[in-house]
Design a protein that fits this description.
Layout lengths: L8 H12 L7 H4 L3 H15 L14 H25 L7 H14 L1 H18 L6 H7 L1 H17 L5 H13 L2 E2 L4 E2 L4 E3 L5 E2 L4 E2 L4 E3 L3 E3 L20 E2 L4 E2 L4 E3 L4 E2 L4 E2 L4 E2 L8 E2 L23
Helix pairs in contact: 3-4, 3-9, 4-5, 6-8, 8-9
């Protein structure tokens, strides 16, 4: 709708704040988790998982215990108000503080297990990439490890049914790495994404152990059911399962909640799959014939003589 030329832009914008609803959180600072706070928490969590690798001052090994306890206290203090704000949208009563304490106690109790799982991912990257020269290089320079680390942490909170924050964490990693892994995805050990840019892994994916993906792979939904009003139904199994020891090459697309890629299978580049693949399969795209000719056989106008 065209506005009056005499109306100040602020007045027109303010009118939408009161008229549209739903997207207006004028008290957002008090009711929604802070994006800067969650971003900073992600950085601090990576420092906890990989001390010394994220620019923090090097400490004497004898100080590591006190430093680790201090970092956990700082992180707890940073995350507690954000978890409370996230839970308040669901609870609306006095149980928020106790629930936040329970979730964070569970979360910090799982950090050691997440770190042990990440060492299997580092090992998979080292063994799976001939260009890797050391574990240190993988921790410092491989975007896939950062994306997987944050997803594994966010998944712990997702399992506790914490709203908003798990998705904010994985989107922080997505923005930094180009790898989009939903916090709901279940991912086994020794997971490696080579290069990584453009990878998309949906919420209900279940990925086994020793799985390797290349850039541009999509593990997505085939279609969305709608209700009587035409709105997309939420929930349900929408994304594929990938069993153990599967390799999926660049730009492959695998869709559907009933689709299973069987163990030890290899999916070639640019393949589009919407049905299950048996174990021990090789799936590849048989393109039309590609011709290679000598540049000397081209006409002056740039066209081939053939």
């Amino acid at each position: 709708m065209d506005e009056s030329p005499d109306q100040h832009p602020a007045e027109a914008l303010l009118r939408t704040y009161s008229a549209e609803g739903g997207i207006n959180y004028l008290d957002a600072a008090a009711t929604l988790p802070s994006r800067p706070a969650i971003d900073e928490a992600c950085v601090e969590l990576l420092s906890l998982l990989f001390p010394g690798f994220h620019g923090e001052p090097v400490v004497h090994p004898g100080d590591l215990a006190d430093l680790t306890r201090s970092r956990i206290r700082t992180l707890h203090g940073r995350l507690h108000p954000e978890v409370c704000k996230s839970l308040a949208r669901r609870h609306g009563d006095g149980s928020v503080e106790a629930d936040a304490d329970r979730i964070l106690r569970h979360f910090f109790g799982r950090l050691a297990g997440v770190r042990e799982m990440l060492w299997t991912d580092i090992d998979a990257a080292y063994e799976g990439d001939p260009a890797s020269t050391s574990y240190e290089e993988i921790i410092l320079a491989y975007p896939s490890l950062e994306a997987i680390a944050i997803q594994r942490l966010a998944h712990v909170l997702y399992e506790q049914q914490l709203p908003l924050i798990p998705r904010m964490m994985t989107e922080w990693a997505h923005g930094r790495t180009g790898i989009d892994i939903h916090p709901g995805a279940q991912i086994g050990s020794h997971f490696f994404i080579d290069h990584g840019t453009g990878v998309v892994i949906g919420e209900t994916c279940v990925i086994g152990n020793h799985v390797k993906l290349f850039h541009g792979v999509t593990l997505g939904a085939r279609s969305f059911q709608k209700d009587e009003a035409g709105h997309i139904r939420k929930g349900g199994k929408r994304h594929p399962n990938v069993e153990d020891y599967v390799t999926i090459y660049p730009n492959a697309t695998i869709l559907g909640g009933k689709t299973v890629v069987g163990a030890r299978s290899t999916i070639g580049g640019n393949v589009f799959i919407m049905q299950s693949v048996p174990a021990d399969s090789l799936v590849y795209y048989e393109a039309k014939q590609v011709r290679v000719i000598s540049r000397r056989e081209r006409t002056p106008d740039g066209e081939s003589k053939f």
